[in-house]
Amino acid sequence: MVSLLRDADWLTRERVRGYALLLALASLALLANSYFKAMQPDGTDFLAFWGAGHVTVEGDPAAAYDLAVQEDVQTATGSTGWFAFVNPPPFLFAVAPFGALPFPIAWIAWVAATWGLWAWASVRAFPRLWPLVIAYPGALISAGHAQVGLLTGALLVFAAHEIARRPAAAGAAVGALVIKPHLAVLAPFWFAASGHWRAFFAAAATAVAAIGLSWLVFGTQTLAAYTTSWRASGLLMEGINADFLLRMTTFFSQVRLVAGDTAAIAAAAASGIVALGAALASHRRFGGDARGCAAAVLAATALASPYLFNYDLPLLIFPTLWLVEQGLEKGFRPYEKLALAVLFFAPYATRALAFPLGINLMPVAALALLALVWTRPGSGPPLSNAGTA
Q1: Is residue 196 part of a domain?
Q2: Signed CA dihedral, 256, 371, 22, 123: sign only
Q3: pLDDT for 290-335, tens place per residue?
Q4: Residue span of the structural domain in which 225 resides
């Protein structure tokens, strides 16, 4: 029994591929269920994106941040629920085309387009592991919410894969994360510590250009209106709302739920320091191996911000599959296969279990993923079970 868990030799390539394809098929059924739920009166997160895109196409982008207008626009779809749009103005470029479509079609188009971009970037990074990409539960939860995590994940995975070969393109992808900037908070430290100055300046130029273009196209009024959305974001964080905090995936949110604000701030600071340390030291730790550095930084990204949700985590496909790749090439460590199987499901499973358990365990899983990446053996003789999965 110990050997079954320690070596997990039963997780062969053929079985993993078969399980992954079955999981992908099951995910289609779950996604269809998410779509039908999204069309019900309670509404869905995607209403905020669609509503913002709709008023932008109609010629009034500043109304994306007008709560009264958004309530009218979103509830006109038949939904009784509605959601504030809080993303920066450059994100309007992404959602405007979908706002031109009827809401039920726009939901499908958004999920198909963003999942397609994420899958393309991930398969390019790990072509041999494509069944694990299409079955990744972390992408399923983002698709089910029709959230932005697939788009941001695509940008980060693309950057991680291209940083060694096309640093300017990698930097531009990170700069495009101005649409959700807290996911790029480690990038400047990663690029600077690794000497990727072309990526550093490309990221800065892209972010500035995106903000400038949105100002030029959407006007000063829209930029000013965006600042009003900060209040809506702040209101979400006021008080200890278990329903909201259990949806989050940070040490800040979970510690705040059980121990209050002071302890939560301390937990957020500790988590952020660990993440920053990983970004600064990854180049030295991995001896300049760009993929190893990127795996560490993307794993650390899930720990860097106090504000994160399970649907933001498709980016974790890169560190997860990097570990699988390393195991296939150099051998898996004791219990590593089993740990990777658990972490593969973690973004979806921790969200599903959060309310029954009364705690979201995803920050613990993210820390474990970073630890596995960080402790991966470097160059040297392969381990004895290389290539057995």
Answers
A1: yes
A2: positive
A3: 999 999 999 999 999 999 999 999 999 999 999 999 999 999 999 9
A4: 2-374
